[in-house]
Amino acid sequence: MAPKQPKAASTAPSSSITFNPNDLSVNDLVDFEEATGKDLFEVLPTDAKAVEDWRPSAKVMRALLWIARRREQPGLTLLEAGDLTIEEFVLDFGGDEPRPTGGAGSTS
Q1: Which of 97, 95, 91 is nearest to 40 (CA)?
Q2: How far apart are CA 92 and CA 20, in angstroms?
Q3: How many CB atoms are located within 10 Å of the residue 92 CB?
Q4: 46 vs 21, 97, 104, CA distance in Å?
């Protein structure tokens, strides 16, 4: 069997994302639910303390990345979104300062 070839480097935009659930369309919500089997508003933290402690599952993180990135990268698939890496994932509920979630790669 031939050895595995390393993955090509991603040409995706910067990996830091600000995600504001208030900016989502109904289709975004349906796509998230179909991708994860969960209602987005049931998995999102509800207050500042919950945001600090939030540790989303891999499926939830991938779906959020997909939803957030596909406006910048039309045609991005759910599987391709899973290949993206992030330095910091930020939930922005609007009005307040965005708060780091402590997602993958976070130093908080």
Answers
A1: 91
A2: 5
A3: 16
A4: 12, 15, 20
* Residues forming a β-bridge with 19: 91
Nearest to 93 by CA among 40, 20, 41, 42: 20
- Furthest-apart CA atoms within the chain: distance in Å: 55
Name the residue type at position 96: D
pTM above 0.70, yes or no: no
User: How buried is residue 75: exposed, middle or buried, by Cβ count under 10 Å (0-12/13-18/19+)?
Assistant: exposed
> Model confidence over 28-46: pLDDT tens digits?
999 999 999 999 989 888 7
Q: Which DSSP string corresponds to 47-64?
A: SHHHHHH----HHHHHHH
